[in-house]
UniProtKB/TrEMBL annotation:
PANTHER family linked to this entry: NAD-DEPENDENT PROTEIN DEACYLASE SIRTUIN-5, MITOCHONDRIAL-RELATED, NAD-DEPENDENT PROTEIN DEACYLASE SIRTUIN-6
Annotated Gene Ontology cellular component terms: nucleus
One Pfam family it belongs to: SIR2
Domain Deacetylase sirtuin-type: 19-272
Active site: 136 (proton acceptor)
Taxon lineage: Eukaryota, Metazoa, Spiralia, Gnathifera, Rotifera
Name of the protein described by the UniProt record: protein acetyllysine N-acetyltransferase
Amino acid sequence: MAHGISDDDLTKKEIYDAPDVLDKKLDQLVEWIKASKHFIIFTGAGISTSTGIPDFRSGMDTRLSTGPGVWELRDKGEARSKKATVTSSTKAIPSVAHMAIVELARQGIIKFVISQNTDGLHLRSGIKSSMLAELHGNSNLEYCQKCGIKYLRDYRTRTAGKVHDHNTGRICTNSKCNGSLLDSIINFGESLPNQELTAGFEHANKADLCLVLGSSLRVTPAANIPEEVAIKGQKLVIGNLQLTPMASIAKLNIHAMCDEIMNGIMNKLNIPIPNWELHRRIRIVIQSNQITMTGLDLDQEHIPYSLFTQVNVSLRSGTSEVYKSKPLKEPISHKIDLTSIKKPSSIQYDLYAEIHFQGHYNEPIYTLKLPFVDQQQDIHLFYDPKTRIWRQE
């Protein structure tokens, strides 16, 4: 069951390694990474503070741009300063550290990522869902309590104000089930998901190197995973601004921002950190004049992903529009009876879909040209929030 240890001064005092000390520590860590056979990452709230998402335990005198932790403000009866740089998890852009992890995983250097965070940024950064265990859930993920099917959403699944009522009010789309959907966030005192916890310990048992990023390591049973690496006599490295209860069993304690640690590692490995793009996978099925459009997880196609607010389907000849559907909401499914549309046979007509997204990053409408022939295809759209331009692969 998830539970915490009472805060004390260890959780609040921030320590910053001097530049030369940090450089030597990173040299050592990079040597271990190069020699590692099974390198895993364990992340906490500290990896997301640079994205604008506050952590929980940072003290009132923290240097973090997000300001003191949520629990610290609560305990002190203080409000967050208006000068703090804070954003919602749905609008946050994955950090340098997130993207460094994506690239190391892509190259096979990192074997698995275990996270205590519910912000969904690891998945949004592009890490494969099959390489990730989100121990405390994901605010964008819900599941059916009857059949276990998972559903990703491009919005928060938890109903506002209902912390202990996990029922989201939505129903499983499996017609043979129709079970109630529950949000996946784990509250204190609740059991962690068995699949994620098991995967975390399995990789801890294989690991010869575990790097902790931005976790106080004070919440169990999650914290028992990196501890297992140290107990086995393998290398535990902790990157955190505060001392943790596991400082004495770690081979190395690095006191720096998560972005600074990962940027240093990547520079020493001579591996560029990719820029982040919003990546969307959409499956389009055209059969008997019926168009079905479904968002999917990037890695596991059995996990649907609600991406759209609506889709408009239209038939055009040049700039002339001869048919346009009513706005369709997910799940997108529309039967177009082309024979009922009067058109000269000598004129070329094209079929289009205007896709409207949730807009957390100000994504514009994307217009997609569709074939008339029956087929199934997956398209991959990439969006750069800086240029506000989509590209398709």
